[in-house]
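Our consortium's second objective concerns turning raw sequence data into structural hypotheses that experimental partners can test. To show how far this objective has progressed, the report includes one record in full. It was chosen at random from the queue rather than selected for favorable results. The single chain below, 80 residues long, was entered without modification.
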Amino acid sequence: MPIVNLDQPGAEDFIDGYKGLRPVAMECCLAEVTPDVLRLLKKVKGSGIKIWLNSFWPSLNAGHDDDRAVELEQEDEAWG
């Protein structure tokens, strides 16, 4: 499964490089939710590739992590 950091330069080129290969899923990491990140997520989804957002650590998902949901009881803020 390819892994792309949507905040980094070249993320769109990385995504485009997998168009012909069509992996089942792509892990998409992000430091913050921005309009460009949302656009790139839509691009991945629109290409038929499933998106996996890693919820283990807040640095991979803009703070939408499992610890926030379970330990802080903020399910809507983490997963909603």
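The partners drew two points from this record. The first strand starts at residue 3 and ends at 5. The mean pLDDT is 91. Both points have been shared with the crystallography group to help prioritize constructs.
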